[in-house]
Design a protein that fits this description.
Layout lengths: L2 H5 L3 E8 L3 E3 L9 H9 L9 E5 L5 E5 L1 H10 L3 E8 L3 H12 L6 H10 L3 H12 L3 E2 L9 E2 L2 H26 L9 H13 L6 H27 L3 H14 L9
Parallel strand pairs: 2-4, 3-5, 6-7
Antiparallel strand pairs: 1-5, 3-4
Helix pairs in contact: 2-3, 4-5, 6-7, 7-8, 7-9, 8-10, 9-10
Length: 259
């Protein structure tokens, strides 16, 4: 998304804004990192802070969509005003897109990125959400760390980007029917390794048989075999999971074993 295309038709101006009137919308932004704020405070350079980006909403409230850590620094130091670019006429969805734009320049976790894309009504992010929920699962957008919500969004996106909604649905279907919905069953290497198995043996394996085998051996044994294959073949975790799945699939099968 190009900044000039996104903001060119919006009224904007630079202002020294009282920090007391500024708010942050946590519906699309990642949580404030207090350790990061402390580091900035310790090495504070008013010249290097730059401008924050603020949306003036129709109710005359002011919402920071880029710069919440700098705002926190100013509040910590007791500085009453901060320089910012104020945009008028942005919807909350457009604020989220602005947040996503500026934070693609900075380091941002896949989960934070996905949360912002959902708020921005990104088509692919919404499809990923729908597929996950169709299997009785949830993505932990709010970082609640509850045991039944998935945080390995990077893996979900990789599977979706490579194989589309059908591959993502099949990976999640197999794991949920084999193990359940605890987040430990949806570690990145497990999902990506199973996806490699599916793509390499797409027309060769019996899904019901595979689910039965995974149920029998369980995740603990899957991870143990993954370590064994990593050492034996000097491969990465995803590839080792694939080898382990093949081994489990072939166990007890008289015909139609996989190579």
């Amino acid at each position: 998304m190009k900044q000039e295309n996104f903001l060119s038709n919006k009224t904007q101006y630079i202002a020294n804004i009282p920090v007391s009137i500024l708010r942050v919308d946590n519906s699309y932004q990642k949580p404030l990192d207090n350790n990061h704020v402390k580091k900035i405070v310790k090495n504070f350079d008013p010249v290097g802070v730059g401008q924050i980006h603020v949306s003036k909403r129709p109710d005359n409230t002011f919402w920071v969509f880029d710069g919440q850590h700098r705002l926190a620094v100013y509040r910590t130091l007791g500085i009453e005003k901060i320089k910012g670019i104020v945009y008028e006429g942005l919807t909350i969805v457009e604020e989220s897109k602005g947040y996503d734009f500026y934070n693609t320049i900075k380091k941002q976790s896949p989960l934070d990125k996905e949360k912002a894309l959902i708020t921005a009504l990104d088509k692919d992010a919404l499809i990923r959400k729908e597929v996950v929920e169709s299997q009785g699962l949830e993505i932990d957008y709010q970082r609640t760390n509850t045991v039944d919500k998935i945080q390995a969004v990077g893996a979900i996106k990789k599977i979706y980007d490579k194989g589309g909604r059908n591959d993502l649905k099949e990976v999640l279907h197999i794991l949920s029917r084999s193990f359940g919905n605890h987040k430990k069953y949806y570690q990145a290497m497990i999902m990506l390794g199973l996806h490699r198995f599916i793509t390499e043996h797409r027309d060769e394996f019996d899904k019901k048989w595979l689910i039965n085998r995974l149920k029998k051996f369980g995740v603990k044994e899957l991870l143990t075999e993954q370590n064994t294959f990593r050492r034996a073949f000097n491969c990465n975790a995803n590839e080792a999971i694939k080898f382990a799945v093949v081994k489990f699939y072939n166990h007890g099968k008289r015909k139609g074993k996989l190579q």
